[in-house]
Specification:
By secondary structure, this protein is α/β, with parallel strands linked by helices. It is built from 10 helices and 20 strands. The strands form 5 sheets. Strands 3, 7, 8, 11, 12, 19 and 20 form a 7-stranded mixed β-sheet that branches. The longest helix is centred in the middle third of the chain and has 20 residues. The chain binds zinc ion (2 copies). One zinc ion binds next to loops.
């Protein structure tokens, strides 16, 4: 089969590699159709690593994927061949303290698709995954939407953690794919007022189409002053989705006493700082968001019944052969790219 191998920094080659075997009785063999390019994949592309996770070349990345089941192991009962599925890229052990506590996303023995030392990624023609990671999607869902289910499930998880109530005033700082997925998840659940910010104007236009009530670009205006003018009492929730010190600071300034800051963005640097007196005086709550936990099914349900439309996020399409061009585009944020999709099997 063909696979897109990361062969060096900013180098991707399409190579032949053996098809994986369906060995496990609880596994499924999936023909990969679509793979979304994630910011974390691009980190491996531009830097060869994310923190202590170091890619040894050649390495296959990609984890936002969807496809069609080709075959299943003897003990699999919930899937049949020919069924289209969205994939949860995290395989958990099911027996550690975290799994037993319902925190499969922080499983001590987790294997994540496209993570060095764990599982090779999805940018290839066929993939073997635990069947429990394969979620059938309704026929009305396109393969592109099915691939975007994975980042959207992170938005659903962030929203669930936040305990956002109808009527809430919400800030989303950073309107990249994950910020937009948080926006869609909040918008789907009841009336609320959403303020979204980003440095890229095209992303703000997408945020509008995803249901933001107000958008602002910190290059053009003072975000804290502009939002505070509209919400003098402050915001109930801020989702920091940029991974920047500046947006963490803005979030703390924007929140009302008793408000909640959700840290969704991944900072480049090891440490960030907080104005501890502002945190204390306003008695703010801080929640960290790590990927998602069992939110693939609810994400499919929201999209399937038409409560959420993922289409505005998807801006570019590439065949597998042009994976490098897709990664280069996302790395340089050229052409107003939000989510680029690679079509593996057409
Ligand atoms: Zn991702
Ligand atoms: Zn576990």
């Amino acid at each position: 089969m063909k696979a897109a191998f990361l062969s060096g920094i900013r180098q991707i080659q399409i190579r032949e590699t053996p098809e994986p075997n369906l060995a496990g009785r609880r596994d499924a063999l999936v023909k990969v159709e679509t793979v979304g390019v994630c910011g974390s994949d691009v980190h491996y592309y531009t830097a060869g690593r994310i923190g202590s996770q170091i890619a040894e070349f050649p390495w296959i990345v990609g984890h936002e994927c969807a496809g069609t089941v080709v075959a299943v192991g003897a003990e699999v009962t919930h899937l049949r061949s020919g069924e289209r599925v969205a994939i949860d890229p995290l395989a958990s052990c099911g027996s550690c303290d975290q799994c037993r506590a319902g925190r499969t996303h922080t499983c001590r023995n987790q294997k994540f698709l496209g993570s060095p030392g764990q599982l090779p990624g999805a940018l290839c023609e066929f993939l073997v995954m635990p069947a429990d990671c394969c979620f059938p999607v309704p026929n009305t869902m396109t393969p592109v939407q099915a691939a975007v289910v994975e980042p959207f499930s992170i938005g659903v998880h962030a929203r669930q953690l936040s305990r956002v109530q109808p009527g809430a005033k919400i800030g989303i700082l950073g309107a990249g794919p994950i910020g937009l997925c948080v926006l869609l998840a909040c918008r789907a659940e009841g009336e609320c007022t959403i303020y979204a910010t980003d440095l890229v104007n095209e992303r703000l236009e997408v945020a509008r189409r995803c249901g933001a009530d107000w958008v602002g670009n910190p290059n053009r205006q003072d975000i804290v002053a502009s939002i505070s003018q509209r919400e003098p009492l402050g915001l109930d929730f801020v989702f920091e989705c940029a991974g920047e010190q500046e947006t963490l600071d803005q979030g703390i300034e924007l929140l009302k006493p008793g408000g909640t800051l959700l840290i969704v963005g991944i900072p480049e640097q090891e440490r960030v700082s907080f104005n501890v007196h502002a945190l204390r005086r306003k008695e703010l709550r801080i929640e960290n968001v790590r990927r998602q936990n069992r939110c693939v099914a609810p994400a499919i349900e929201l999209v399937g019944r038409g409560a959420v439309c993922l289409d505005p996020l998807v801006t570019h399409h590439f065949p597998l052969e042009e994976t490098q061009a897709a990664f280069e585009m996302v790395a340089t944020r050229r052409d107003g790219v939000v989510k680029a999709i690679i079509h593996v099997h057409r």
